[in-house]
Automatic annotation (TrEMBL), chains A, B:
InterPro entries: AA/rel_permease1, APC_K+_Transporter. This is APC family permease. The chain crosses the membrane at residues 65-84, 111-133, 139-160, 172-193, 218-241, 262-283, 326-353, 374-395, 401-424, 445-463, 469-487. Coiled coil: none annotated. It is found in: Membrane. It comes from the Bacteria. The lineage of its organism: Bacteria, Bacillati, Actinomycetota, Actinomycetes, Kitasatosporales. It comes from Streptomyces nitrosporeus. GO terms for cellular component: membrane. Keywords: Membrane, Transmembrane, Transmembrane helix. It is a multi-pass membrane protein. Pfam families: AA_permease_2. PANTHER family: POTASSIUM TRANSPORTER KIMA (PTHR47704:SF1).
Amino acid sequence: MSKLTDVPKRILIGRALRSDKLGETLLPKRIALPVFASDPLSSVAYAPGEVLLVLSIAGVSAYHFSPWIAVAVVVLMFTVVASYRQNVRAYPSGGGDYEVANTNLGPKAGLTVASALLVDYVLTVAVSISSGVENLGSAIPFVVEHKTLCAVGAIVLLTLMNLRGVKESGKLFAIPTYLFVAGVFAMLVWGVFRSVVLGDTMHAPTSDYEIKPEHQGLAGFALVFLLLRAFSSGCAALTGVEAISNGVPAFRKPKSKNAATTLAAMGLLAVTMFCGIIGLAMVTDVKMAENPAKDLIHNGSPVGEGFVQDPVISQVAAAVFGDGTFFFVLLAAATALVLFLAANTAYNGFPLLGSILAQDRYLPRQLHTRGDRLAFSNGIVLLAGAAILLVWIYGADSTRLIQLYIVGVFVSFTLSQTGMVRHWNRHLRTEQDPARRRHMIRSRAINTFGAFFTGLVLVVVLATKFTHGAWVALLGMVIFFGTMTAIRRHYDRVAEEIAAPDEPSGDDTIRPSRVHSIVLVSKLHRPTLRALAYAKLVRSDQLEALSISVDAAETKALREDWERRGIDIPLKILDSPYREVTRPVIDYVKALRKDRPRDVISVYIPEYVVGHWYEHLLHNQSALRLKGRLLFTPGVMVTSVPYQLESSEAAKLRARRRAEWTAPGSVRRGPVERRHKEPHHHKS
Amino acid sequence: MSKLTDVPKRILIGRALRSDKLGETLLPKRIALPVFASDPLSSVAYAPGEVLLVLSIAGVSAYHFSPWIAVAVVVLMFTVVASYRQNVRAYPSGGGDYEVANTNLGPKAGLTVASALLVDYVLTVAVSISSGVENLGSAIPFVVEHKTLCAVGAIVLLTLMNLRGVKESGKLFAIPTYLFVAGVFAMLVWGVFRSVVLGDTMHAPTSDYEIKPEHQGLAGFALVFLLLRAFSSGCAALTGVEAISNGVPAFRKPKSKNAATTLAAMGLLAVTMFCGIIGLAMVTDVKMAENPAKDLIHNGSPVGEGFVQDPVISQVAAAVFGDGTFFFVLLAAATALVLFLAANTAYNGFPLLGSILAQDRYLPRQLHTRGDRLAFSNGIVLLAGAAILLVWIYGADSTRLIQLYIVGVFVSFTLSQTGMVRHWNRHLRTEQDPARRRHMIRSRAINTFGAFFTGLVLVVVLATKFTHGAWVALLGMVIFFGTMTAIRRHYDRVAEEIAAPDEPSGDDTIRPSRVHSIVLVSKLHRPTLRALAYAKLVRSDQLEALSISVDAAETKALREDWERRGIDIPLKILDSPYREVTRPVIDYVKALRKDRPRDVISVYIPEYVVGHWYEHLLHNQSALRLKGRLLFTPGVMVTSVPYQLESSEAAKLRARRRAEWTAPGSVRRGPVERRHKEPHHHKS
């Protein structure tokens, strides 16, 4: 795996980057496409199958509706792509759906989109990995026999890779994605060639199977409902389309234009592959049943529990290339790989969205820091845990997981497009230039249609899939929404509590007048001497040393040493029969404050700085505890005077290494650019 | 469970105790006996059986040697008791074997004893619980059928009780222990009465079983070796005798005399019960086999795997009282209860010994603080974990666990007695008073005999039991010894590194001359204003505020607010394109130090103090990280200026409650008294 820095003619941004940040270079379109499109393109591996599967409920005759459903999906895809081309032009900062909804529809809409996206990231991992395992399983039976285990294993592996901080690279994405696209197109071309030119009749492995319809002879409303459900399932092909709108800053200039072009290319590829696979599935007589064990009939009897229903893409490949041939295995491998890459995108998107939410105080502040390893790790582990849970519960069955998937996507599509309509309305109020106005009116029309269409699909998805699992996704969204609202409320309450009063009086309590400094002393060693020296340097009104006597002999030795060295700071000794350190100090500080409420007590604590975690266990524990307690005492400040032991060098190096770590996902995030909260001034 | 404070006429020690420490009152002998003797007395529940078990290897005929072995155990018991009566007189401070060995034989011997005792505590839990489960099992078959599970459950229960901090109370100990002693004596008296006066022939459940000897007709060296092995097993009756020597401070005055009397009473009770049970076992024809499944013959065939060999005490009780009678069940329950209490003593002894070892820097310093809950908990969990491991590995089989048990006890007996001989030698060198000299010479004679005899037993135990499991105990000792040596070495190395130079020059680095104070500012809220006010109060040579700009708009707002309020401290703003906080600050501080190496940089960090753990996650994370990094930077001190939010009240209360927690085991530890490292001045 080579880094993107190897890509020639890389353009470095603004100020010189340190070597450890060099990975963040700009993406040419040919690399940007695979980086952002592995998720939406990979969904053609499962979306066509889902359509056939739902239609099979009404029997094989209903398969005739599949071209119409494909057309509907294509129209929707073009609508969504056209809409998002407006988004990337209007919001080149890469805020994505969350930013669009937040800015134009208000915080509640923004938070709803954010919750939907977070749920979606979890489902992207669960669905992509499950589907990847199923595709790999069509070539390697072992994998599909231990489906759940393999899926969980793959998630764990991805998680470990991301935790270790594998650098994302454009090439890493490009090769499998282009391999997958090339493979699918080769299959389509070869299939059409065999069928039309050579006149071969190709047979999918399930071509001589029959399907027992669950509901024979559906008509009227029931049939429409079934078709809508099939269409909803087909919409799985649209997941991940919005990814590019988050990644505009990673594109080369002109960023927005390049992003829009890439979006169009991606849409075109996706619909071609989607329609092609459905078409070949029809030609090769693929049969998919919702409950294959009892509804798939072979030689007059159901196939039973042991039967494994391979994905449509692999059945078509078996028909076109021949089962087990080199090209068949290659396509299966490429499909699995691109699906794993799609899952990996969630690992990059989840923390990125987290950092944006943290900036708006919906998540802990520390997530805001870019490349904060700890925050990143927490996000990754949360994502992986949720995905593993889902995979486990649903037995890594992509069909059942997809029922949950599409809700979140369309919630964010709809809200984002509605937000865009508002965006154009607002700009039209002030824009005078007729050419620009025309442009805006056109964009508004596109987004309005997009909002309407995706909203309609959302209603259809909710109506047809709620009981099939969509409620789980909604529940997840409600949980995220509730948690983030609570966090925001906490921050707001604290902000209110600590807001400075407006008159420039300064402090809220009694104005402090004097500083009484106390240096905690246990022995007269270098750390103590340093603390004493430093404390003397800052001229406080009163300075004394304080020692807690837990052992008479040690205390006596300390007192003698003190006098022998002629230290000109008074030494106060407090008795502690229970060998406690914390309580006597706290009591003493409180007594001082009671006597002179306007005194500020400044406590100096000499601390050893050590290098290894096990050394931490051996030092500073009582100092840490004391510090913890002192911080609860009003009118006190606590100063750590560190003394670096030799072993601390090791820890220093480690800390530096940690600081220089870069979070995965930096390729798609592009170079750093200040994100503006109100990007109204951007012109499309 | 009532506290010991209910015992009338309690004597409060020295200074008035706070209410939360009132539990620590002094023990009258009648309470001290059960508190300290539950461990040694309970061992008569398993020791007699072990003797018979080993003898059975040579066939039932070898049972005739059992009275001789009992005599040897009695002689040993008297020797040990007599020896420890010298210990408690010479060391009324309660340091126990570790202190005696450490003071008189040097740190290596002391550490050996400490390692042996730590291993012993683990084994006390494992053996007592296993034996308790076996005794309970003689009345309740379910328990013995799920032996390991029940034993682990009992350990977990004890652990949870101790972690929660159940207050030890004298009565809690007194009732089961006296019940047990009374029950055993009732059994002995009633058994002798039935046999001698009524002339009944009593039959143990196994009286009509036969034993197939593993080695028929042993003679010569082999027989002697077997007898020695049986004797070694019988020595299990002596475990726990040393406990009183740790607990002298808990006794009423005259402490040493009362402790010595209690020791004698305990010894007398133990040997009577031990001999009585062996005697009745002979009378009632109890049969014990090492491998009952194949060596115990009933009606001509081995009893097989399903057979459960009940402990001798319960077989005798069945013979004397009748199986399943009220008295039988009562005695079984009392036996189990007293064994669980014996296990509980380890939970008290382990952290106590830990705190003494911590004082000598063999364990982390924080263990030294009495009643330190965290340290206590860690000790408890370590003890429980090790005991559960042993119980699991050995299937809660007390017979197999006892093989490991006795080594540690006799290591500490032998080293302690040897230490006492040295102690008297040293005192005899300076003592002039003839009466005292006579007394000392007598004491020395007793300890010399004790050292010799226990040393001999140690050799016997090692020789006869090494391959049977004693090596595991030795390995445990080596691990403890190694770990503690390493910790001590670390502390010594650090102590050397930080030792102050002898000339009163003061500091080791360039003598600091000025203080440059930096207040970190993110926003102008109350915490910041407080930090600014405090920083101004301590008059440093230079004072500035520093803000890291991660968002242009926020920075602008801060600058405006700063000017509007007319704050007379210069505000410096550093850019951070990666939204990092730590690195720019560190770099800035380093640059300052480079320019003026004699400057000390004082960094003030405003911190929120919040009340709940989840609030911690939301605040101060970057401050904490920054602080961590700053401590590695030389010439820096870091001051936390806390701002207590309203929610911090909750945490304050919680912290106070934690501080007022008293560790279990305080009854046996007695009131606080300064422990002197060199107690040579104590006269016996």
